[in-house]
Amino acid sequence: MEYKPLNHFRSEIRLVTIIPGEGSRIECTIKVVSLTLPPEYTALSYCWGNPKVTRDIYIGDHVLTVTTNLYAALMHLRLKDKPVTLWVDSICINQADISERNRQVSLMGVIYRKAKMTIAWLGESDDESHQCFDILEFLAWGLQDQAGNQFYHRLQLKNLKFQKLVKLFSRCYWIRSWIIQEVCLSQDVELVCGNRRLNWNVFSQALEYIQRDPELFTPEFRFPSSYYEHITMLKACREDMTGDVPLHFVDAVSRCRQSIATDPRDKVFSLLGLAYN
């Protein structure tokens, strides 16, 4: 596929629009816009997945090969009756043009800040992930309930299978370096797993419940430490970014040291949008 050059001085980016439809064929259009006054769009945060396992999508008369994880995300985000406009790094950036890639990376903080919403794609769903979203919603409700229902809520906790959360929280999405700024800088974040959705605020409230009263949870509910620490770090960083004091770059690097990147340099580049110095 051929890309038209972007004007870096005008802070130009590309947006991809998924054409409404059904079936396995995904058709899209691409347009160039300026970040100075962009149209409404949603940013996608996801793991690329195995680059050797791919599917084709269609952009105009051109074919573009994407990973199966991205293909699955596009399938779930596509609507039957109206177009969906997204910013997706592997589609909207010419990956064959190193100069463009470097320039677009420098804009990624702004791209996620200006998006109406960021979709955090966790991957395809299964029976357990459906139950996980129900559990998280229940925990968030427990945190919000300041009336006389706490005793009832604690009794109900004993019947929940918290071990299922371990599998969801151990997905590769959570420890990818780039998701840190993608989650922390976005105006609004929605977790999507298959056809289930959960707003970040609800997810954050569920985590808060776990952190406040860990003794309520059964011994089987144990995260791999690196995943749990990374998820709680994401929560703390997002809260910091909405506060009055900007996050110092050294603090950002220190907090995110356990994140994973294919290129070690990305562990630094992926945090530049978070810090003010």
Description:
The chain has 277 residues and is α/β, with parallel strands linked by helices. It folds into two domains: 8-115, no CATH class; 125-185 and 202-269, no CATH class. Helix content is 40%, strand content 18%. The protein has helices at 68-77, 89-92, 98-114, 127-144, 150-157, 163-169, 179-184, 200-212, 225-241, 249-255, 266-269; strands at residues 12-18, 27-34, 42-45, 54-59, 62-67, 84-87, 117-123, 189-193, 196-199. Strands 5-4-2-1-6-3-7-8-9 form a nine-stranded mixed β-sheet, with helices on both faces. A hairpin with a 2-residue loop joins strand 4 and strand 5 (62-67). Helix 4 (127-144) packs across helix 6 and helix 4 crosses helix 8. The longest helix has 18 residues, at 127-144. The two termini are 38 Å apart. The relative contact order is 0.13. The mean pLDDT is 83.
Number of helices: 11
Give me the side-by-side strand order of the main sheet.
5-4-2-1-6-3-7-8-9
Strand-residue proportion: 15-25%
- How many individual domains? 2
Overall residue-averaged pLDDT value: 83
Q: Supply the helix-strand structural class.
A: alpha/beta
Helix content: 40-55%
Overall outline:
globular
Using only C-alpha atoms, the radius of gyration works out to 20 Å
Number of strands: 9
Largest sheet: 9 strands, mixed
Low-confidence stretches: none
Which series of helices and strands comes N to C?
EEEEEHEHHEHHHHEEHHHH
In angstroms, what separates the terminal alpha carbons?
38 Å
Organism: Patellaria atrata CBS 101060
InterPro entries: HET, HetReg/Transcr_Mod
Protein name: HET-domain-containing protein
Pfam families: HET
